[in-house]
């Protein structure tokens, strides 16, 4: 339902520069918007406004800051979007979509709607890994026994991904990055032990890609004369767009990194 709403909601957004910096915010209009708003036709919750923030029923959609200036409703996600207001009252909110259709909303008076929105005041995205995952590999090389570990640690570092509809409407989604701890032992002697984050690959993977990606996985692929071979997967969330990076840990404990061919 949110996607359909955004398809009709979106107006001049993205690369257009907002020219209302010097326009005073309408605090009275903002106060009238406080509460839960429903679509007139479907009676479904479209969003909740609390303070200066819009919260959506879908926890994967990031809350966004908003303002009202003159007759325009501005939202400030990864991009600035603006919507021309057609009508506003205590329990009515109507505005123009990009196609110049009027989106008609009314304020909820049902306590159950408040319960449905409870818990969406912050984004609660389920990460790929919800707890520390340990992988332990035992390998032999030149008569010596080694243990190679990978610990996948979910982090609280958020990555915002803007998705676009066919019409070019943006929706901000939130994902959590991971930290990979890898270590190698010969008996009780630690050869290597460090955290690997996506920032480890600065200079190997383009910065713009890294900014929008998460460190998705880390696998141990064996040992040979050059050392212990790992491969990291760095991906744009919910897509097949990934970079694979080879990591070699030498027997001297030195790490080398190279993009996979």
From TrEMBL:
Gene3D superfamilies per record: Protein of unknown function DUF4738
Name this polypeptide is given: DUF4738 domain-containing protein
Organism field: Bacteroides luti
């Amino acid at each position: 339902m949110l996607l359909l709403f955004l398809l009709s909601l979106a107006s001049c957004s993205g690369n257009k520069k907002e020219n209302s910096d010097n326009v005073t915010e309408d605090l009275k209009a903002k106060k009238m918007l406080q509460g839960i708003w429903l679509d007139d036709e479907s009676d479904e919750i479209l969003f909740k406004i609390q303070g200066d923030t819009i919260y959506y029923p879908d926890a994967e959609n990031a809350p966004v800051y908003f303002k009202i200036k003159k007759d325009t409703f501005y939202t400030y996600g990864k991009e600035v979007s603006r919507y021309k207001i057609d009508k506003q009252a205590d329990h009515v909110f109507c505005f123009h979509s990009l196609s110049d259709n009027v989106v008609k909303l009314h304020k909820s008076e049902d306590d159950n709607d408040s319960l449905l929105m409870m818990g969406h005041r912050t984004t609660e995205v389920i990460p790929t890994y919800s707890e520390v995952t340990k992988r332990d590999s035992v390998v032999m090389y030149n008569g010596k026994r080694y243990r190679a570990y990978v610990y996948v640690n979910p982090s609280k570092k958020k990555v915002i991904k803007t998705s676009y509809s066919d019409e070019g409407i943006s929706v901000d989604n939130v994902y959590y990055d991971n930290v990979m701890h890898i270590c190698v032992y010969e008996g009780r002697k630690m050869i290597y032990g460090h955290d690997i984050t996506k920032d480890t690959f600065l200079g190997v993977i383009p910065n713009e890609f890294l900014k929008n990606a998460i460190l998705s996985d880390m696998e141990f692929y064996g040992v040979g004369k050059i050392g212990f071979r790992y491969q990291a997967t760095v991906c744009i969330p919910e897509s097949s767009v990934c970079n694979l990076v080879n990591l070699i840990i030498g027997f001297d404990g030195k790490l080398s990194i190279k993009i996979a061919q």
